Amino acid sequence: MMKNQKTITKDNQSNVRRYLLYSALVGFLMILYSCGKEKDNPLPSLDDGVSVVIRDLPGDTEASMAEGVEGKVKRPFHTFLFNFKDKRQIWIKNKADSLRWLKTLAWDIAFTGPYNSELFVNNAKDKFNPGYEGPATNTGVVLVRQAYHLVNEAPSDEEFEKSTVSKIGWASNEYSDGWFLYSLKTHLAIPLPNRTYVIKLQDGKFAKLQIVNSYKGNPQAVTNMKWPAPYYTFRYYVQEDGSRNLNTSGRR
User: Which of 110, 139, 176, 180 is most buried, with most CB under 10 Å away?
Assistant: First the structure.
């Protein structure tokens, strides 16, 4: 009887070793397959030959919403402005900066609020806009719920007049005008697909804008709330001939 028990124990041990070896092999093959899939399905290219692509533009990386964050200070985030034509970033860090830059045509969009995640198109009529009572009296923005490359024409003047888009930030639901969802559980910002913002500039030209990411390196997925941010990746196209043609596909 004892001899049979020893034989059964040895057989069980052998089966366990074979199972562990098999599991390790399957795991290794799954890793190889996963790597292969990533190579087969890389992130879609943002470059279309005509749009301007801005990658990892640093926001206020020294500010924090909470205390005790290494290398950061708990304070409001400094606003920065951006000019489409010159690709110029202008910082608003004090009252002198505000007086010098906000009520001017030196900028097209402003990155404000926590992590610079709340965007405004320069506009003199919106009292919540950084450019309020400035010279940008002929601007507007319309949210088109389509992928950037599918937006081929600017909306009509009537659509710009009816648009209620003001601050472009956190989308509290799918019907919101915002460009990202924010998880109160993970504290991560998730860019929304099919959010293209068509802008009417002060000079009457039309542009389209896509905010792609606020995390460094434009990662496909972020699981760590300590991922470096804000570092903005976005792209835009300005139609210089004054028409409503915003087609950026097949024009390379």
Answer: 110
**Residue type present at position 191:** P
Centroid of chain to Cα 11: 57
CB atoms inside a 10 Å sphere around CB 46: 18
CA atoms within 13 A on the CB side of 60: 26
CB 170, CB 182: distance < 8 Å: yes
Pairing of strands 63-64, 73-74: parallel
Q: What is the pLDDT along the chain (252 residues), one digit of tens a residue?
A: 444 444 444 454 554 454 333 333 333 323 333 333 334 444 579 999 999 999 999 999 999 999 999 999 999 999 999 999 999 999 999 999 999 999 999 999 999 999 999 999 999 999 999 999 999 999 999 999 999 999 999 999 999 999 999 999 999 988 899 999 998 888 899 999 999 999 999 999 999 999 999 999 999 989 888 899 999 999 999 999 999 999 999 654
Question: Which residue is it, tokens 């002929």?
Answer: 138
* H-state helical runs in 68-172: 95-101, 157-162
Q: Which amino acid is at 30?
A: M
* Tokens (6 digits) for 70: 């290494």
The encoded tokens of residue 34 equal 């996963």
Per DSSP, what are the bridge partners of residue 58?
231
Question: Which residues 6+ apart lie within 8 Å of 235 measured at CB?
Answer: 46, 51, 52, 53, 54, 148, 209, 210, 212
Tokens 């915002």 -> residue: 178
Instruction: Tell me how far apart the alpha carbons of residues 150 and 30 are, in angstroms, rounded to a whole number.
Output: 36
Q: Terminus-to-terminus CA distance in the chain, angstroms? A: 82
